[in-house]
Amino acid sequence: MQPTLLAAFFEFSRTAFSMSAAVLALLLIGLLAAKNDMAQARGLDKIVALTNLCFAIPLAAFGAEHLSGAKFLMDLVPSYMPWRLFWAYFVGFALIFASLSIGTKTQVRWSGLLFGIMMFLFVAMIHFPGAVTSGGRILWTIVIREMSFGGGSWVLAGIAMGGSRAPGKNLIAVGRVLIAIAVIFFGVQHFLHPLGLPGVPLEKQMPRWIPARPFVDLYHFPSAVQRRCAELSDYGRQEAAGSNRITSRRSVQYRCVLMNREKLGCHM
């Protein structure tokens, strides 16, 4: 193998390396913290025991991205705010600390609450004004996505607070509504763009080797809307949860097949 090829193989950008290292570190820490919950769980409940860890891992990745690429990300800070580089680093450290707190189930009532507030501030100060000014599908997608992130963290915070009484009960209710809105929104997007492949850029489409491509995406639209509408009401919550488990398994199976085919060199 040529030296240039070896160099290219072993060369990683600082941002990619730091994000990968943060994810692996949090994964190990979170698994150690969740070992007792996993030992007590049975069957698919072992996956449920990793709920906090699954939510925290992206926070660690994005926190590392902020710390390693702060000079680039500082341009996203509104121009009217002073010390823009400081805020880029501040958000990076906040995400790292939140990921450790949520991933290890330590003081989640505070980390989940504060992370949700931060997401809503991002929407109010950055994403929503940009979506209103420029329009575009990607900007509105980010608005809904960030609100669902905040809603999810509020659900975790509410559960940590007890869940059956205020303020935990209220946080869970708000979080459920925001998550339901997000899934309905993305369900409609599947209907409007049936060949779309989730990811960036949004124009990317499913590979042509997949049979009945429009049906694969359109299947998710009515099921997503039905499940989230059921979750918004107390009646039908169990039915929605059961439907979620079945559809989640099918979605995971489909995406695993897609990833395996792409690794084998299949083309669109």
Detailed description of the structure:
The chain is mainly α and 268 residues long. It has a domain at 13-106. The protein is built from 13 helices and no strands. The protein has helices at residues 3-10, 14-33, 35-40, 45-48, 51-68, 70-73, 84-103, 108-134, 137-160, 168-192, 213-218, 220-231, 237-263. Helix 7 (84-103) packs across helix 8 (108-134), helix 9 runs antiparallel to helix 10 and helix 10 runs antiparallel to helix 12 (220-231). Mean pLDDT is 77; it is low at 233-268.
Short structural description:
This protein is mostly helical.
Largest sheet: none
The total of helices stands at: 13
Total number of strands: 0
| Radius of gyration, CA atoms, in whole angstroms | 20 Å
Low-pLDDT segments, ≥5 res: 233-268
The shape, in one word, is globular
Strand content range: under 5%
Distance between the termini: 30 Å
Helix content: over 70%
Please write the string of helix (H) and strand (E) elements.
Answer: HHHHHHHHHHHHH
The overall pLDDT, averaged over residues, is: 77
Judged by helices, strands and strand pairing, the structural class is mainly alpha
Helices and strands in order, then pairings?
Elements: H1 3-10, H2 14-33, H3 35-40, H4 45-48, H5 51-68, H6 70-73, H7 84-103, H8 108-134, H9 137-160, H10 168-192, H11 213-218, H12 220-231, H13 237-263
Helix pairs in contact: 2-5, 5-7, 7-8, 8-9, 9-10, 10-12, 12-13
